[in-house]
Amino acid sequence: MADIRQPDELVLLTGNIAENWRKFRQEFELYMIASGHDGKPEKQKVALLLHVARKQAIDVFNTFALTEEQKADYDVVVQRFETYCSPKTNETYERYMFNSRKQFQGEAVEQFVTELKIRVQSCNFGDLRDSMIRDRLVLGITSQRVRERLLREEDLTLGKAVQICQAAEISERQIQTIAATVDGDASINYCTTRGRHQQRKPTQTPTKMKCSCCDTFHAPRACPAYGKPCNKCGKKGHFARVCRTKAKRGKVRYVAHSEPPEYTNELFVGLVNNGHKEGKRKWTQKLQLENCWVSFKLDTGSDVSIISEQQYLKLKPTPQLEKSPAVMTSYSGERIQSLGVCRVSVRYKKRKIATFMEVVQDECRPALLGGNDCEMLGLLKRVHLIEAGRKPQNEPMKEEIKKKHSQLFRGNGALPGVHTIVLKDGATGVIHAPRRVAVAKRPQLKKELDRQVKLGFLAKVDEPTEWVNSLVIVEKANGQMRLCIDPKDLNKEIKREHFQIPTKEEILGKLANAKYFSKMDATAGFHQIQLDKKSSMLTTFNTPFGRYRYLRLPMGICSAPEVFHKTMHQFLEDFEGVSVYMDDIIVWGSTEAEHDERLEKTLERLTQVGLVLNVDKCYFRQAELPYLGEVVTQDGVKPDPEKVQAVTDMPTPTNATELQRVLGMVTYLGRYIPNLSARTAPLRSLLGKDIEWQWNAEQEAAWIGIKEALTKHPVLQYYDESKAIKVSSDASKDGIGAVLLQETKGEWMPVAYASRSMTTAEKNYAQIEKEQPSVVFACERFHSYIYGRRVLVETDHKPLISISKKQLGDAPPRLQRLLLRIQKYDLVLEYTPGKYLVIADTLSRSYPSKRTESTTESEVHIHVCAVKSGLPVSERKWEQIAEATANDEELQRVVCCMSDGTVVCPKPYLTFIDELSIVDGVIVKGQRVVVPRSMRTQMLQLVHEGHMGIEKCKRRAREILYWPNMNQDIYETVSRCDVCQEHRYAQPKEPLRMHERPNRPWAKVGCDLFYLKQKPYLLTIDYYSHYPETALLASETSGQVIIHLKGCSRDMAYQAQ
């Protein structure tokens, strides 16, 4: 009997304690019977129970209010544990959960029925128990074919229903086994439930048959897989789901679910171990999880991170474990039980993230770190597909040119002549107040200023100037500083030169018969144009070390693009086979020799004028080259695929809502699509009431046809410089969409489309921080169309317009870097209600599934870190403020309002909600930290440390802190300070001053104004007799006072002194 294994320790502090107790009690009672202890005295059975259950159960037992007699009664003790562990059930809720249960993809019928039987126990159905389980089985089973079979049965019982389902499941598995071919490769499998059903063979249309290439039923020669590449093997003519290229079977350990907290799809990923010895490069990493170190397996295919129960219990403090709605299944379809999900902080080097982790009971060595978490911690980086359509660089020729014209690729460059910035008549200067620079950043700033002075970009200013701009500091990824100015006010007063720029048609028309092309780009082109002294004074900016001015044309000046174009045009206008468009120089030739000769002359001229080129953006002797939104080739000009990629890569709709959204965009452009009704009929047939969603070959063909119509003329317009253009951009929850529109016959028609998905970090931004990247993305994607032109930008986010009009330093940290990136464009933002942004809204929600690399996230993150490091707040204090913010109800409402606008913003923050942003859990207003209510008293004490006066405390607090009524709180704190009151400076009493007594009445008088019943009166007193006289005045002006005193003097016949 001593060899009989005791039950495991009873866990009552974490996980599902009701389930823990149920399993423990059952195991304990079996243990007592097997070991012969069931016949022991009651007191001994209680002692055995507590001994086996161990520490947590003993602690709970000590909290029971039991008498000594009850403590010795086994049944009473068990009943108390039962009451403690069993939560009160809500019958309505339990029935809802039961009726909501459906069979999961890959879940066995037996497992599904067992789960239903467990859930039905708390529903109190009584005699209807088996009937309710039967109904839930029929309605919840995934196979439509089996459901139809069950509904045809008369007098269907639970046992018969289970028997039919199990038989169908076994036969399906046997068919798959027979049809499968075994191969020997290892693989990681990923599956997503899209909501579409298996196409059944129609009984009324015998001409359709199930196709082995696409796994659907369709008429002959109508296969949607024809000519399409397989995503699995790469061969054309079939889809991945029917591909016969199999994988080596390995041991599947864990799977993943959709990311919390929105479990939208059922996902699973298999981590495969083929049993062989691992290579030298192990994909594991040790990470700091809360207070302890855990070794994680980096699983890029997993959407979730997993730790074991033992690892979870080591975390101190132990995070709260919540019930997980996720469904975790193995590759074979077996369900893996999750103990719950917890939110933990994970640190790797200097990066720290908060993420969700699933806790499982089985051993997981090592723990799994999901793909999203790997990316956020910087452990893995996506390597995206390289376009094969465009030829690689002509590297040998580039190296030859670098050697021969080495002067073109080194130094800073300085073009001959000087440029004069001309202001409008009557322009008045604007002087901006100095912006605070963190003490820790000042040495680096001084070093950068000295470096640019030495290079000849900047000069110190000691004389008075009418214009003083604000300095904007941008920190690069390598830690260096980039200095910019905020010339918003200056740009309003600059006279534009409006130099005539050639149209795209004029340039492309010259490329007839051209076979070879080269394109060159200048390094910081604006900085190579020198300014005269008067213009240089206009660019003066202030720093903590005095004022400086630019000696070169700075970025952000509104006339800079056309000035640079004019300068380059003057240098190259007499060259044949060379054109300049803004900052692009293109050289072409009909033969290789002609091209090389023209290129050589151009390079020599550029060397003579002192221009410096950016070698990374230069392309030499290319047979095909992207230029001005088109692709110039030896066969002529072709449309750039990037213009329509957002539409051609648009994912297939998976439900009626997505289809309605796309059809809305199609209808918006419908008048230019011939036979629109007939083309969209197969798609609209899925939108009828009570119509089952079935996407087959007919819908796929219609979908492809619609996308082709949207990407060709007459819907897609050819770009025309003579016509007005505007950019429409929008950001959804997960994506960004934009379209370049051109006015054609009084209507706005598309010229180019663009869209991309958001990164994981971008999805967590506030809405305004999503809308601004959409504008930046649109401008940079349509750069060749809008650069140098005044362009209207449509947005459905009003706060974005007010932010764009403010000074850069007043914008939220995340927006400052983005606003700098679009300074080179002449933009006018306009509010347009979302219902009119049909195209941009559709593209933002139907973005390509392939994620694109975004430089915005990394740049914004660097700038936010720089702003944060510039604040005099320690890392520990920042974490305290973040924790207090998370527990502050008012500030959490502000966060919700910033994120999705579903919560009404509290009034104190409503007027400047567009100025707020969230940095590492802390709300920031500009460059000031919003202090939660629980920490305001502590902050007031720190501000008043040293017992400074009221005004000094206010100035000190306003530099880095903010909360509503902060000034009043500071006033009251200082006023109540006993030390300040005791040592405050007492105002001296004014001494009495004697005046000479006059020797006659009305020789000297005193006057003052007073009010009675809101009417002004003049009081006059004679210094000799002290006789008062009052007079009602028409107004309290000096004229009325003089008139009254003159009249008084005449009456008294004396001349008043």
UniProtKB/TrEMBL annotation:
Domain (Reverse transcriptase): residue spans on this chain: 455-632
Key word tRNA processing present: no
Pfam families associated with the record: Integrase_H2C2 (PF17921), RT_RNaseH_2 (PF17919), RVT_1 (PF00078)
InterPro entries: DNA/RNA_pol_sf (IPR043502), Integrase_H2C2 (IPR041588), Peptidase_aspartic_dom_sf (IPR021109), Retrovirus_Pol_polyprotein (IPR050951), Rev_trsase/Diguanyl_cyclase (IPR043128), RT_dom (IPR000477), RT_RNaseH_2 (IPR041577), Znf_CCHC (IPR001878)
GO molecular function: nucleic acid binding; zinc ion binding
Segments forming domain CCHC-type: 230-244
Entry keywords, A to Z: Metal-binding, Zinc, Zinc-finger
Record-linked Gene3D superfamilies: 1.10.340.70, 3.30.70.270, HIV Type 1 Reverse Transcriptase, subunit A, domain 1, Zinc finger, CCHC-type
PANTHER family in the record: CCHC-TYPE DOMAIN-CONTAINING PROTEIN, PROTEIN CBG26694
Protein name per the record: Reverse transcriptase
Lineage of the species this protein comes from: Eukaryota, Metazoa, Spiralia, Lophotrochozoa, Annelida
